[in-house]
Amino acid sequence: xxxxxxxxxxxxxxxxxxxxxxxxxxxxxxxxxxxxxxxxxxxxxxxxxxxxxxxxxxxxxxxxxxxxxxxxxxxxxxxxxxxxxxxxxxxxxxxxxxxxxxxxxxxxxxxxxxxxxxxxxxxxxxxxxxxxxxxxxxxxxxxxxxxxxxxxxxxxxxxxxxxxxxxxxxxxxxxxxxxxxxxxxxxxxxxxxxxxxxxxxxxxxxxxxxxxxxxxxxxxxxxxxxxxxxxxxxxxxxxxxxxxxxxxxxxxxxxxxxxxxxxxxxxxxxxxxxxxxxxxxxxxxxxxxxxxxxxxxxxxxxxxxxxxxxxxxxxxxxxxxxxxxxxxxxxxxxxxxxxxxxxxxxxxxxxxxxxxxxxxxxxxxxxxxxxxxxxxxxxxxxxxxxxxxxxxxxxxxxxxxxxxxxxxxxxxxxxxxxxxxxxxxxxxxxxxxxxxxxxxxxxxxxxxxxxxxxxxxxxxxxxxxxxxxxxxxxxxxxxxxxxxxxxxxxxxxxxxxxxxxxxxxxxxxxxxxxxxxxxxxxxxxxxxxxxxxxxxxxxxxxxxxxxxxxxxxxxxxxxxxxxxxxxxxx
Length: 570
Prior knowledge:
The protein is mostly helical. It has 28 helices and nine strands. The chain has three domains: 1-194 and 522-570, CATH 1.25.40.390; 197-277 and 449-494, CATH 1.25.40.10; 284-433, no CATH class. Strand 7 (401-403) and strand 8 (412-414) form a beta hairpin.
């Protein structure tokens, strides 16, 4: 009886919690029913928009880094620590609140997506529009399942809108989940109801190319997880269907440019295949209504009154990740801010860089963070560009031996010691927003689009798929197209480590590094080598915990699940 009561509230930790979502069950003070409301074109479109909005519960939350980057080789502790359970594994258990939130929000999104097809039969819209919106929602549902199966393995598989009280769903196998996802995507692609591409006009809507890209990602993950070698070939084919006739033509720095004039330079570029859309000009909340990506991967560098920018002070780039960038890689300077003026009392500002056209020329520089490969001659050449404003600059190398960045008083210290201070390490600038720089210091004032899938990522998906399918020549060709745009020489050989290295540089801050390491069976190895908390003991710490724990609340609320359904290690 207890489970039955709980199920009405938290079926699979969200399916029925969402049935109490204000969006669908607000108090009805008129005679208009939900079906009446959603039968109008305007009402039907609100259903579709609600499904898209649920993506923000994954990608626009301040927990994004905790969901997807903790417990990996790329990001480490700084002034603040990463979640102990997720970064160190040993104490990770089914009560972890972050995993419960992720699980819940995914099922909220699935239910919102299924609501579109549920109400579509009575919608007073054209057949073409109805089919398009239904198929958009089907792809959205698959995206949530992609997150679930890559995080938890097999999960309860719901295939339609839940409108009545249910007492539970059994845990499906990963095979069942992947098969459903592939069938859905292939059916949507074959139907052809979606737009061919939406990237140049704002890639927030699902397009055929977005569905094909997700299919490539799904086949790739399924090939590894299910040990189906033929899926590597299918992943490569799906990726090439997206790539066909295209190349990486926009310079990397231009693609990620934070444009002070407000045109949000790259946000609607053809390389951004699917986005979570934001637009300050049309935002209902012009201040504090954005997302927090501009503060990710950055240590404290001063308050708003000091002219700094917001920061999370955790998930700071590891030395290993920095060393993945080769000398000459144009992505480094587009990803990290290497110069900082004196950010005290608001005399100078972090944002002067953008107001000045992408440089600090004419501004006294207090701290310079040379890349790990920069020599003394490189640093002197940098000073010579603006000698009057750089003659007294503190040099804080992004390398093993560096300097204390806050007061510059100690002698040589380690990189890990350095990032424990204020101003510790180069801030990530890849996601800086041109609106934020004008007058706002807030965690949620980034109005740039969040890019779910990019064309360059699909090149790397193709490289990995071709490599595992035994076609090294095609794998190298896809990898080297990414390296060409980065200004690097073509690689002569390729393996999984080379692909993971390239993902560090091309996709820093994006996607899920945890998915990448789990998928490629590198989770223990890379944590053992590069996670400072687990160096030399990752096998013992991680053990069987190669998936995240299914939330205990989800098991307790589901009559068809028990402790036997929990993942190994928990």
